[in-house]
Write a structure and sequence with these properties.
259 residues; 5-stranded antiparallel sheet; 3-stranded antiparallel sheet; 8 helices
């Protein structure tokens, strides 16, 4: 094999380091890491979600109107060329995302102690009405109108599919399998908030709404090539065959009692 110039290797390493540092800085990664360490010490286990986000928005460009016969621009009564708006998708976000996960809203398959080995993990989130509307408009979520405005789901099949999803979540909102709507829900009425569950398996990602209405929002194959869940856990002191680690307050409890 050809020899590698040490200067080239050092330059490449510097470029790689600068690229990674820039990516972390763009997603506020240093703050996320600090919060991860704090959660690990306080609760025994800290969790972060690492994924990729691509977000596009529709914009309009003004293009001249041409005569279909001559191909020449058409002018208006004022002598100025006539134009028409043409839609165009503009990429606003296309890069990695890193976010902290509140361990109190993270539910796991307790048969295993490592996320990669688990059948599923569930992340409970409270999102705004505007967020749900945006995801529906982008065609990422379906049944958004049903959740927010008590409209009928797309089909009975989706209602049944949603019920099956909840059964697999082992009690995470599965009680009462028929979708129900609470238009007077305090969460939606006072704060415009919606509670959703994001379930991940190695082969598929599922999102359901559980309050103020119940509906299947999304079910897609795992879009990542690694075919793994997008959550990473850090434990303070590992406990055999348990996912949740030992927090520092428990380890120092005897010292505190002595004082």
């Amino acid at each position: 094999p050809a020899e590698i110039d040490p200067d080239d290797a050092i330059l490449q390493a510097d470029l790689d380091t600068a690229f990674v540092s820039n990516q972390i800085r763009m997603v506020n990664g240093w703050l996320v890491c600090r919060n991860l360490f704090e959660d690990t010490l306080r609760y025994g286990t800290g969790v972060i979600k690492i994924a990729w986000r691509r977000h596009t928005e529709e914009t309009f460009d003004e293009q001249p109107v041409t005569d279909p016969v001559t191909g020449l621009p058409i002018t208006g009564l004022d002598g100025q060329p006539m134009t028409r708006p043409v839609p165009r998708q503009v990429v606003k976000t296309n890069g990695p995302i890193i976010e902290n996960v509140d361990i109190r809203n993270f539910f796991v398959d307790m048969a295993f102690d490592h996320i990669d080995d688990m059948d599923y993990v569930i992340h409970r989130k409270v999102v705004s009405r505007e967020y749900l509307e945006q995801m529906g408009k982008a065609k990422v979520y379906r049944n958004v109108d049903f959740v927010l405005d008590a409209k009928t789901p797309e089909s009975d099949r989706e209602v049944e599919e949603y019920a099956q999803m909840l059964k697999s979540m082992r009690g995470m909102g599965g009680e009462g399998q028929e979708p129900s709507v609470d238009k007077d829900s305090p969460a939606l009425k006072k704060h415009g908030k919606v509670t959703i569950l994001e379930l991940q398996r190695d082969d598929e990602f599922i999102t359901v709404a559980i309050s103020p209405a119940k509906a299947l929002l999304r079910r897609i194959p795992n879009p990542f090539k690694h075919k793994k869940k997008t959550y990473i856990a850090l434990r303070n002191i590992r406990r055999p065959k348990l996912f949740f680690g030992m927090p520092e307050p428990i380890l120092t409890e005897s010292l505190q009692n002595e004082e």
